[in-house]
Amino acid sequence: MFSANENLMLREHKRRVVNYIEATIPESLLDLGTSVMVMQTACRTPGCVPLETAIAIVFPRIKSRKGEQLLPGIKESDGGTYKAKVLMPLKEVTNDDVLDALPPAFQGGRKTWESTCFAVRDLVFGRIGGLVGSGDLEGEVDDRRVLANYLRLALDDYLERGCVAPVLGQAFDKLDLNLNKEDVDANVDGDGDAGVDNSNSIGNDSNGINSNVGPGAEVVQGSMKGTGNFVIRRKDDSDDEETTAVKSEGRI
Known about the structure:
Blueprint: H1 4-22, H2 27-32, E1 35-42, E2 51-58, E3 81-86, H3 95-101, H4 113-132, H5 138-160, H6 181-186, E4 229-236, E5 239-247
């Protein structure tokens, strides 16, 4: 329970953060009835910050403009609610934090696939170092390598299951593929390799534009606007580096 003084301070922080958010929304949309709500919530998911700030931007439903995005690029602006989070307590949220949490469709918004990927990467690496040590000792390096290899396999399992996470603290359920030999043979080309749809490859995208990244790279169509192709490189046993480009389009 909060004391009367704590409740007063919390309301003041809410008003401050709401003002930050409203400054990113065109005045015309605010006049139409777009409203902003913020709330401090507790998170008990492993690895989650104890207190986070939830943002809800509620757009009006206008019959004469049904099907039209009042804020281009934000599908929820057609009478829906756009939601975002800032992973810190309400009292610590700054204007920069709000801009980092909103996509560029909002005035000054900076949330892109680039920033999101880096944030997730840094969070994971930081947790690994925090759990087993981030120093140069051989044992610490070996422990980080074990965790990194496990996470690589776990992400493969996650993708194979349609990006559905397992029950907390438990392994993934086994997949029931129900594939027979005929199904497999039908998807193998004459060279003995599984057929690959290259329609989304970097060198042959839907616009016919040749990218400057290597062959075999994949384009992942995201939902956040970005500054172009976001290139991630990692070492591979069979090559100097394997390149995967994330072509960031749209918004989250």
